[in-house]
Design a protein that fits this description.
CATH architecture of the largest domain: 3-Layer(aba) Sandwich
Distance between the termini: 68 Å
CATH class of the largest domain: Alpha Beta
CATH topology of the largest domain: D-Maltodextrin-Binding Protein, domain 2
Helix content: 40-55%
Order of helices and strands: HHHEEHEHHEEEHEHEHEHEEH
Largest sheet: 9 strands, mixed
Number of domains: 3
CATH superfamily of the largest domain: Periplasmic binding protein-like II
Amino acid sequence: MADKLQLPPLQALVVFEAAARLGNFTAAGNELGLSQPAVSQRIQALESRLNAPLFERRHRGVQLTEAGHSLYLIVRSSLNDISEQLERTRRKRNVLRIDTDMGFASYWLLPRMERLQALIPGVEVQVTTSPNDYNFRDSNADLAIYFGQGNWPATQTQRLFPEVVFPVCNQEIKQALGQHNRAEALLSHPLLKLPETHPQRWITWEDWFHQQQIYGQSHSASRTFNAYSLVIQAALEGQGIALGWQPLITPFIQNQQLVQCGQQVRTERGYYLISASNKPASVQQEKIKAWLLDEAWGFHEQATPISVI
């Protein structure tokens, strides 16, 4: 009979991994559905068992000690192996998972789900979303669609849509702006935006104004939302002017709920179709990849000319 493994409670290792990865006990608790004291208690119990500190407690978070870093590498690798094995088991249940962000899922993917599902009858399609940048090591998805530069390690990427952006507003604000769409006129209305990211992940209002040769603008009435769906909802309600990303904004333009009220700009960033480079694709994955690329091509064929940064 094999010897019993000398392990601490597995939940303590899961809590430790989350705290080490996020660098914050509160954030780890939020991810795992635990309170900050509960996270701290499990970490302390693990440190007592090992008779070694795993974290340096700091004012704005925690940092791994040398012993903590060594343990994290092992725990992270082991949990990833478990996750991948569970994923292999899941694949046998005829499930295809697509990871993306909430904006793309809501405004582009979900309206096409019936056609996507028809390509792979009998396969359960799962769509999961995250506000964070794509991380191959943390993803168990068969396919992913994320916004960025297309340079994620250990992946194959194909760009579906470039970053094409222009200001949008509802009909009432459009009438107030007049017919000339002067960029300076936008500053007389609240600017709706997403939080800034470091490094920068997408065009900001400052970038857009720079393209219009307007610098150093100050706008205290700006409103920031942590989800793009909230930005668009605020624009629909006439709370201000938003930056609209194609193809997410296209349905609102087509039904005239929102109208373009400024020049388009484009970058080399965009939405990319992502798959693992070290795993053979299934027949179902290849069907969905080909369909997604065809859908994106159809959109480009219908798109109007755009100005380039």
